[in-house]
């Protein structure tokens, strides 16, 4: 059923193949976990020891002999058969289409846009701030204790922002989106403004890492890789690119407190109310278009 849902998702948007890959890896990790001779506590699985245990399991299967190892691989592939079939169908499509993009390929040229990760972290903090704020004391303690490492990270972030703050022509031209105003009135107008957001990015990324730290170590790595594969190649910054990474992040957080759910719900309702209010009331016209234009994400 998951593989079929993944197929439908890929038909809707091609890059969803990455999230199907995420689920495929997770299913494979579940299978390996079930084959371990002794149960392992979640506290151990959330550390790099998870990789060592997985490698140990593979070596154990290999030492049982070539035939036994081949049988083990066949069983794994059989369990992942439907996932693999969808992935192979996608590869066939890419070969046939001569690329992943459908439509105007000049508007969707792959690039290296590392700042997308920073924008995503800010998006996460906006919609899930009740889950971010509890980590501010821990973040300050981390900064005091590991100030050299934190300083290096800040310098690295500033370097990335300096050399990799990219802007899509659509952002500069289309005044129907919020990012047009953010860029033209702040980030594009004042050279230092984009650097002032570094503390927000740092705190947001720190909170994200803390909120998924209870997951299996390889699940954390799997998620980070998938988020990077989804966002970094995108030149255009759009909130819709952040939705699925955010949903996977939100679903994998620890069981929240009631007050966090209430505040999260209130935040979401408020943002949606403001969006509908602006969309309904802020109307303007382009000189070359007869119909009204409205502002949205």
Q: How would you portray this structure in words?
A:
With 297 residues, the protein is mainly alpha-helical. It has two domains: 1-106, no CATH class; 110-294, no CATH class. Helices cover 70% and strands 1% of the residues. The chain has 17 helices and two strands. The protein has helices spanning 2-12, 17-35, 42-45, 49-63, 66-79, 81-97, 115-127, 129-132, 136-145, 147-164, 169-173, 178-187, 193-196, 198-211, 217-231, 240-251, 258-281; strands spanning 283-284, 293-294. A two-stranded antiparallel sheet has the order 1-2. Helix 15 runs antiparallel to helix 16. The longest helix is centred in the C-terminal third of the chain and has 24 residues, at 258-281. It is globular.
The gist of it:
The chain is an all-alpha fold.
| Widest beta sheet: strand line-up | 1-2
Structural class given helices, strands, pairing?
mainly alpha
Radius of gyration: 22 Å
Indicate the overall shape.
globular
Give the N-terminus to C-terminus distance in angstroms. Answer: 32 Å
Mean pLDDT, all residues = 89
Strand content: under 5%
Oligomerization: single chain
Q: Count every beta strand, where a strand is a DSSP E run of 2 or more residues.
A: 2
Per-chain topology:
Elements: H1 2-12, H2 17-35, H3 42-45, H4 49-63, H5 66-79, H6 81-97, H7 115-127, H8 129-132, H9 136-145, H10 147-164, H11 169-173, H12 178-187, H13 193-196, H14 198-211, H15 217-231, H16 240-251, H17 258-281, E1 283-284, E2 293-294
Antiparallel strand pairs: 1-2
Helix pairs in contact: 1-2, 1-6, 2-6, 2-15, 7-14, 9-10, 15-16
């Amino acid at each position: 059923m998951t593989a079929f849902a993944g197929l439908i998702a890929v038909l809707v948007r091609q890059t969803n193949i990455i999230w199907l890959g995420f689920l495929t890896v997770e299913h494979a990790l579940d299978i390996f976990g079930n084959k371990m001779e002794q149960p392992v506590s979640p506290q151990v699985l959330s550390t790099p020891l998870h990789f060592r245990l997985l490698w140990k399991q593979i070596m154990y299967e290999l030492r049982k002999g070539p035939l036994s190892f081949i049988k083990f691989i066949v069983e794994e592939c059989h369990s992942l058969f439907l996932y693999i079939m969808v992935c192979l169908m996608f590869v066939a499509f890419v070969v046939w289409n001569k690329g992943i993009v459908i439509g105007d390929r000049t508007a969707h040229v792959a690039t290296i846009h590392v700042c997308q990760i920073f924008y995503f972290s800010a998006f996460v903090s906006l919609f899930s701030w009740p889950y971010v704020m509890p980590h501010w004391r821990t973040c300050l303690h981390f900064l005091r204790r590991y100030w050299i490492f934190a300083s290096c990270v800040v310098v690295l972030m500033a370097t990335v922002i300096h050399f990799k703050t990219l802007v899509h022509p659509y952002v500069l031209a289309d005044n129907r989106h919020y990012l047009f105003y953010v860029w033209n009135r702040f980030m594009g107008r004042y050279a230092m403004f984009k650097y002032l957001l570094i503390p927000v990015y740092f705190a947001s990324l720190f909170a994200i890492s803390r909120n998924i730290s209870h997951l299996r170590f390889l699940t954390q790595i799997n998620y980070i890789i998938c988020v990077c594969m989804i966002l970094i190649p995108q030149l255009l910054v759009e909130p819709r690119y952040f939705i699925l990474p955010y949903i996977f992040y939100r679903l994998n957080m620890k069981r929240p407190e009631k007050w966090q759910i209430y505040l999260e719900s209130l935040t979401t309702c408020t943002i949606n109310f403001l969006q509908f209010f602006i969309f309904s009331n802020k109307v303007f016209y382009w000189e070359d278009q007869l119909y009204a234009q409205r502002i949205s994400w």
